[in-house]
Fold these 3 entries.
Entry 1:
Amino acid sequence: MKVLIACEASGTVRRAFEARGHDAWSCDIRPAEDKSNRHIRDDVRNHLEGWDCIIVAHPPCTRLCNSGVRWLHKPPPGRSLDEMWAELEEGAALFSDLWNAKCPRVAVENPVMHKHAKKRIRNYQPFAQSFHPWHFGTDPAGPDNEKKRTCLWLRGLPPLRATGTLDGFSARARVHKMGPGADRGLERSRFFPGIADAMADQWGPLGPPPEFEPEEQFVLPLAA
C-alpha cells in the first residue's frame, strides 16, 4: 500500500510500514530525524491526495487537548488570550483537514479533546478507542512501558488490538513529569514503536481498499 504518515519527523510509524514492504512516506514541516529520503518536508495539507488507503496522522495537540483547556481562559505568562484562541483555530483546522482527507482509510492520533476543539472540527466523531503505550509493550525497561492516554479517530480502519504483555503497574509517567525546556513539546509528542508496529501489522494486511464514494464516508448506521 501507499501510506502517508502525516505530521511525523521521527520516522517511527513510517519505518514500521516500510519494514513490512509498504510504500510509506512521512510528511512534516520539520526535516526527517533519520535523514530518510522518504520524507516530504512541507505542510502536509499540500499532499493529502493520491494515497492508497491510510493516513496515520499526528497533528499537534497543544491547543486541542483537554489537559490544556485552562490556557483558553487564563493564558500562560507572556501570551495573550487572542493568541491561545488563534492557535486553537489553527490546530482544529489542521485536524479537520486530515480527518476529512479524500482517503477511505484514515487514522488520526491525539489525546482526549476538549469541547471547544470538538465544535471546530468538521464532521467530528468521537474517538474510536483509547489506550496507553504499555498496552503494546513487552519489555518493562523498553520505550513502550509508559502511561500516556492516546486516542485514535478511525475511518475505514478497525481498532487496534493490544499486543503487549505488561500489566501497567510498572509503567512510567515520564511524559507527564517532563520538566520545562525548549524541546518539551517535541519530546512529549514523540510516538511509541510498539503502537507503530501494531498499526503496520494489523492495518497493513488489509491491502488496498475497494473503490469508495467520498460523500458517503461519514454516513453512520442508524441506532437500533
Entry 2:
Amino acid sequence: MNAVYKILGLPAELLCKVPGIGPIVKVCCTSVGQKILMALTGLSLCGFLVAHLGGNLNLFAGKDAFNGYAEKLHSLGPLLAVAEVGLFATFLLHIGLAVSTTAMSRAARKNEYEKKATKQSGFILPNGGASNLMLVTGLIVFAYLVVHILDMKLNVRGFPGASEIPGEGDKFEHVRAVLLDFKTAVFYAVCMLALGIHLSHGVRSACQSLGISHPRWNKLISIGGVLFAWLIAAGFTSIVVWPWAVVPH
C-alpha cells in the first residue's frame, strides 16, 4: 500500500519543484493543508447538493415544471459541461484527499492505536459512528454518483424518456423510469442513507478544519450540521420514493 501512495504522490513531488507554486503545493501536501482543502471541497459540494435538490424537487410540481427546469439547464450549453466537469473533479479531489489524510492519520497514530487496543473493553463508535465511517460512506456516495451519471446522463441501460440529443427527450419520464426500477431505487435509497451519515459528521469536521470553532458555537454547529445532513438525505430520499408513492405506475 505504501508503494501505491508513493506513486500517487509523484505528481505532487514534481509540482513542489516548480518555481512560484512549489511552496503552495508543499503546504497542500501537509496534513493540515489537505484537511483545509478537503473542508473547502466538501463545503462546495454541500452547496451543489442544495442547488441540485432544489432543482430536482420540481418533480413534485409535475412534468412541465421539471422539463422546464431541465431545459433551462441545458440552455447553458458549454457552461453546463464545464460545471459538470468541475463538479466531478471536485468530488475526485475530495475523495483523494480523504484517502490521503486517512493514510497519514493511520501512519501517525499507529502506535497510539496499539496502546488503546489493550485498554478498550468494547467496540465503541464515537460521534454516533459517523466519524469512523467517513471514508466508507464517501466511497458509497461516489459509487452513487457514477451510477447516477450512467443512468441519468448517459442512459447506458436504455431507460425510456431519454434522447441522444442533449436537452431533448422527456426528462420527467426518464427520471421516473429510472426510479421505478426496484433495484435502482433500493441502491439510491441506501446511498442517501450513506450521504446522511457522511454529512452529519462532515459539516462539523469541515468547520473545525477551517478554524470555525468556539465553545459557544460548537454545539450549535454540530446540531446545525446534523439537521442539514438529514434534511438533504431526506429530500433526496423523497425523490427516490416519489414515483412509487405519488405517481401511478
Entry 3:
Amino acid sequence: MRLMAGQWLNGRVEHRLDWFQLRRRIQWLGRSIYWTIDYDEPAYEQRLARYRRNLRSVRWNVWHYGKSRHARWMIALSRLGAQLLSHRNEFDAAGGDLSKIEAACKRFDELEGYLYSNIGSLTDYGRARRQGERIATANIESTVNQLINQRMRKKRQMRWSRLGAQLMLHVRTAHLNGTLERYCGPPQPVEWTWPNDNAFRQAA
C-alpha cells in the first residue's frame, strides 16, 4: 500500500525503514541476552564481552551499510546467531533452564526476520543523518503516545472518546497539510451590532 500510494502521488517517493524500530529491536535483544548469562560461570566476562561486541557489530553495520552492502550486516548477524546457538547447546548439555536462552533466540529470530523482510527499505542511516534527512520518528511516536495516554487512558474529567479522537486527528492532519480551509472555509470576522430601542421594547 505504501508503494502504491507513493507511485500515485510521486514516482520518486522512497520508503525507509524507521531506525527507531530497528534500534528498539536490537535493544530488546541485548536485554534478553544479558539475562541469559549466569554470573557464577567462570567465563562470564568473556562471554558478555563477546555478546556486546557482536551486538555492536550488527548495529554498526546496519547503520553504515544497511542499503549499500547487505553482506556486512548479514555476516555480523550470522555471527551473533551462531554464538546464541552455541550458548543454547551448552545450556542443553548441562541440563540447565532453557527458558531465558529460548527467549533470547526468539528475539533474535524477530530481528532477523524484520531485517530480511524489509531489506528493500533499508538505507545508509549514517549518510542520511549527516545530510540532514529524517531517519526516525521517535519524537512523533512519543508525542502521540503521551497525548493519547493523557487524554484517553488516565481518569480525567474531560476525556476524549474514540470518535472524538479520530475526528481530532482528521482536523489536525488537515491543518498541518494546509487543507483545513477547503472544508470549513477561511475564518470570517464577526461583526457586533447593538440592538435599537424598539428591539428592547418588543422583548419587554
